[in-house]
TrEMBL record:
The keyword Ligase does not apply. Residues 28-186 form the 6-phosphogluconate dehydrogenase NADP-binding domain. This is NAD(P)-dependent oxidoreductase. Pfam families: NAD_binding_11, NAD_binding_2. Keywords: NAD, Oxidoreductase. Signal peptide: none annotated. Residues 191-308 form the 3-hydroxyisobutyrate dehydrogenase-like NAD-binding domain.
């Protein structure tokens, strides 16, 4: 008997295609094939869209080819033929240059092209991209993602989206390839603010976990006992348990590095300043991450802040 999975479930597990839903397959140019971009792009390609990958790194282009994905040789030509552009980029500078710069992708896009921008960037950078997109008559969806690389591979990321209703609905089948939860939060730059707000809470949670770990350890509680108790307490959450389990193993393999989190904390601080919102805890966490980076842990997971807190407590992790 055939499975009775819903269409949305089949998008998430990678068994649903454009043909199944009646959606038209699109010619998509994917900009940025990094740690998150790779599994997200692979899921979109698996749903039947034609995907062409652009990345300046030869290592990342090789990774795309290993997944049987076409690699763009001429970005200008590829963009001119594209129905949609999806970008997954590391910071404001790269996003502004690659999308809205003089020779950027949007300058070559035809009217009616869809841009789905998934990076964590500032409101001001996103607004500049929006202006260029509007001038080129490109539909612009702000769609930053929240979750791990593993969640991206499973299609269970959360994506915060904002933009015109028609653009949101046109982009939804593509976004659904990597996101099990799509939160529409506004019609302009609200998705950028939402992502930074969530990251503020995420990094504050991990910093408080580091302090609780040091407190319990110095108080004579075995690390496993303490972390199990924390994970199942009233404060428990899937993310807290994930990080507590990693801390128990002393596993600081990066899912999101200290350096990346410092970038996000700068965006949070700048954005809060523009809105006249105090982020008192955020300012403290920003200093904790700066100390973690200065201690030589910048390329480790931001959970490595636990090593710095432990050191300040007279402990060794």
């Amino acid at each position: 008997m055939a499975s009775r999975q819903s269409v949305s479930d089949r998008w998430r597990n990678g068994t649903c295609s454009c043909k199944d839903t009646g959606d038209k397959a699109m010619n998509i140019v994917w900009l940025g094939f990094g740690k998150m971009g790779e599994p997200m792009a692979a899921r979109v390609a698996a749903t039947g869209h034609t995907l062409h990958v652009f990345d300046i790194s030869e290592e990342r282009r090789t990774a795309a080819r290993s997944r049987q994905l076409a690699v763009v040789e001429s970005l200008e030509d590829a963009i001119a033929r594209a129905d949609a552009i999806v970008s997954s980029l590391p910071n404001d500078a790269v996003a502004l240059n690659l999308l809205a710069g003089e020779g950027g992708a949007l300058r070559h896009a035809k009217a009616g092209t869809l841009l789905i921008e998934t990076s964590t960037i500032s409101v001001s950078a996103s607004a500049s991209i929006a202006n260029t997109a509007a001038a080129q008559q490109v539909g612009y969806l702000r769609a930053p993602v929240s979750g791990s690389i593993a969640a991206a591979a499973k299609g269970t990321l959360t994506t915060f989206v904002s933009g015109p209703v028609a653009v949101v609905e046109r982009a939804r089948p593509v976004v659904s390839a990597w996101a099990s939860t799509i939160r529409v939060v506004g019609d302009a730059e609200q998705a950028r603010v939402m992502k930074l707000a969530v990251n503020l809470m995420v990094t504050t949670l991990v910093a408080s976990l580091a302090e609780a770990y040091a407190l319990c350890t110095k108080g004579g509680i075995a690390p496993k006992v303490a972390l199990d108790a924390i994970s199942t307490s009233a404060i428990g959450s899937p993310h807290l348990k994930f990080k507590a389990d990693a801390l128990e193993r002393l596993d600081f393999t990066p899912t999101f590095t200290v350096a990346q989190m410092r970038k996000d904390l700068r965006l949070i601080s700048d954005g809060a300043r523009e809105l006249s919102v105090p982020v008192l805890l955020g300012a403290v966490v920003e200093q904790i991450m700066a100390a973690t980076d200065a201690s030589g842990f910048g390329d480790e997971d931001y959970l490595a802040s636990a090593k710095v807190i432990a050191g300040l407590s007279g402990l060794t992790v």
